[in-house]
Amino acid sequence: MNSSSIIPIKNLKPYNKDVHVNFQVIEQISNKKIQKGPNITHKVANFKVADDTGAIQLTVWNEEIDVLKIGQTYNLTNGYVNVFQNHAQLATGRSGEIKSSDIKFEKINQENDISEKKQKTRDMKPANRSRGHRKEKRSERDDDFSPEVNKKFLWAEMR
Questions:
Q1: What is the CATH number of the domain that holds 73?
Q2: Which domain holds residue 12?
Q3: pLDDT tens-digit profile of 16-38?
Q4: What is the pLDDT of residues 63-89, one digit of tens each?
Q5: Which DSSP string do the residues of the chain spell out, in sequence order?
Q6: What is the pTM of this model?
Q7: d(CA 117, CA 87)
Q8: How many domains does the chain have?
C-alpha cells in the first residue's frame, strides 16, 4: 500500500468503503457486552481516534478491543465509514485489519470531529422478502374446498 491511498480523517465520508487510514487512539468512549443468542456474547467498544486533520469514532469488536492502546498509532486497512444514530463511525468490518504503526503525528486535531456532525442515514430499500404473509392470488382450484363445492362433490358421489 502506498501513502497516496491513505485517507486523512477530514476526508472520510459516510458509507466510504475500502478505507485506509492512519490514526492515534485518543480515548476509549465505551465498552459493552452484547448478547447475540443464548450462548453467544460479543464485546464492542468505541474509541476516539484522530490524525493531524481530524477525529472520528472507531468501533471495534471482540479481540480487536485489546489491540488498541491509548496514545499509540495504528493503520486501518479495508475499513469503512458507517452511520449509526446519525453519526459517522469508522469500522473494520470483516475484511478490515488494524496494525500498529510507527507514524508520528506532529499535532493531533480533535477539533474537527467527524463523528459529532449529524449525518443523514442512507435510505434503504425495504427488503423484498416474504415473511410468511404473502398474499397469493386465489385460483379456481382454491374454491374446490369451499363448503358449497364440497356439497356438489358429495352429491355427485352419492348418485
A1: 2.40.50.140
A2: 3-116
A3: 999 999 999 999 999 999 888 88
A4: 899 999 999 999 999 999 999 888 999
A5: --GGGPPPGGG--TT--SEEEEEEEEEEEEEEEEE-SSS-EEEEEEEEEE-SS-EEEEEEETTHHHH--TT-EEEEEEEEEEEETTEEEEE-TTT-EEEE-----SS---SSBGGGSB-PPP-PPPP----S-PPPPP-GGGGGGSHHHHHHHHHHHH-
A6: 0.71
A7: 6
A8: 1
